[in-house]
Write a structure and sequence with these properties.
elongated, TATA-Binding Protein, single chain, alpha+beta, 14% strand, 9 strands, seven-stranded mixed sheet
């Protein structure tokens, strides 16, 4: 359930004094999604950081940092800046740095979009995201879709890196009949394979509709258009396929490790038997 900290019945209701984007119709706004290396503890931020969020949800909060300037924070480690300018970057760093520690950014996965206020209606094109109003429900669903895209890109990179790691070991199995992978590295790959689908479907909630979409046909249409524009569902399908290949590779390497460990134990037993025979012969003479 999404909670609103201002005096409104829910996150999809726009009251007369609700904050909106500080931009005239037709003005282009650069919006950026920053990627972080770890989740963002929304509960801790709510308790320790000012100003409090205007809209609170299980996965994403929206707070106002200056009049008509908004920061959306996703639990799975994404911050969306409305707008992306020097002042907003500084405010975002000030807000998050004490909670995420040093070297917390992974900018390789950051994304940018252009938003324009368009009185004619919401629209999603390759050039810009048009919003009929710069209200909180629209800010929240655009932020959520963009944050999901960035989070998905981060997971895709992790899975691809894991696949690249398994490739030389799989090649060794094919050419030599065994691999040299160690138990610790194998466990890390197992963790990546097992967590990829969970992160995409559970943590990012790619297949779930935000509450605003359930309560407003306009917001629902906007959210679906954003998902299609960002290829979220197709990217999830591709990720699932890559995760399946990774799981198959990991299973093969796990079986190879089990065989090698079994052979090692057998050789130890053989060595102990030989030592016992030698000691028996020495004792007999």
């Amino acid at each position: 359930m999404i909670e609103a900290t201002m005096q409104e019945p829910d996150a999809t209701t726009q009251v007369p004094d609700a904050p909106t984007l500080a931009a005239p119709a037709g003005h282009h706004i650069q919006v950026s999604a920053w990627c972080f290396r770890q989740p963002i503890d929304l509960r801790q931020l709510r308790a320790q950081t000012e100003p409090p969020p205007l809209v609170r949800g299980p996965d994403l909060d929206v707070r106002e940092l200056g009049e008509g300037r908004f920061l959306a924070l996703a639990r799975f480690g994404i911050a969306v800046l409305w707008p992306d300018d020097a002042e907003m970057r500084a405010e975002t760093e000030r807000t998050l740095a004490p909670h995420l520690g040093a070297d917390h950014r992974c900018p390789a996965h950051d994304e940018e979009i252009t938003v324009v206020l368009d009185p004619d209606g919401d629209r999603v094109t390759d050039d810009a995201i048009g919003l009929r109003r710069g209200d909180l429900p629209r800010i929240r669903v655009v932020s959520l879709a963009l944050a999901q895209s960035v989070g998905l890109d981060r997971i895709e990179a992790e899975v691809e890196a894991a696949l690249a790691t398994t490739e030389p070991f799989i090649r060794e199995v094919r050419t030599r009949g065994r691999s040299g992978i160690g138990a610790r590295r194998l466990l890390q790959l197992i963790g990546t394979a097992m967590s990829a689908r969970q992160q995409a479907l559970v943590d990012l909630a790619i297949l779930d509709l935000p509450e605003e979409a359930w309560e407003s046909p306009e917001i629902d249409a906007l959210f679906h258009s954003l998902g299609e524009h960002l290829d979220l569902r197709e990217r999830v399908r591709v990720l699932e396929r890559k995760a399946e290949i990774l799981a198959d590779n990991v299973t093969l390497l796990r079986e190879d490790l089990a065989v090698r460990q079994s052979l090692r134990v057998e050789w130890v037993i053989v060595a102990l038997i030989l030592i016992e025979i030698v000691l028996s012969l020495v004792t007999a003479h």
